[in-house]
Amino acid sequence: MNPDNKQANNPLHGIKLQTIVEYLVDNYGWKNMAKEINVNCFKNDPSIKSSLKFLRKTPWAREKVEQLYLDLIDRKS
Fold it and tell me: Dihedral angle at the C-alpha atoms of 8, 9, 14, 19, nearest 10 degrees?
């Protein structure tokens, strides 16, 4: 396998988690994000910093955030 093509089919390749969270906040807002993904970091005193800390430690929540991002990108294209 060519190492350059390793991530060729990954639509999230090269996109930072912070960029994803900021994009979702801009498009949904914290309240709607909390409705979509029921986690405290989106409900109680939300911030980018606290969300990133939680998502980096919690793979299932990060996967949901990434899927929400991909769904939003698909709807906009």
Answer: 160
**Residue 20: exposure state from Cβ atoms within 10 A (0-12, 13-18, ≥19):** buried
pLDDT tens for the chain, residues 1 to 77 = 455 556 668 889 899 999 999 999 999 999 999 999 999 999 999 999 999 999 999 999 999 999 999 999 998 87
The C-alpha atoms of residue 77 and residue 56 are separated, in whole angstroms, by: 28
59: in domain? yes
pTM: 0.86
Q: The domain that contains 35 carries what CATH number?
A: 1.10.720.30
CA angle 46, 51, 56 (to 5 degrees): 170
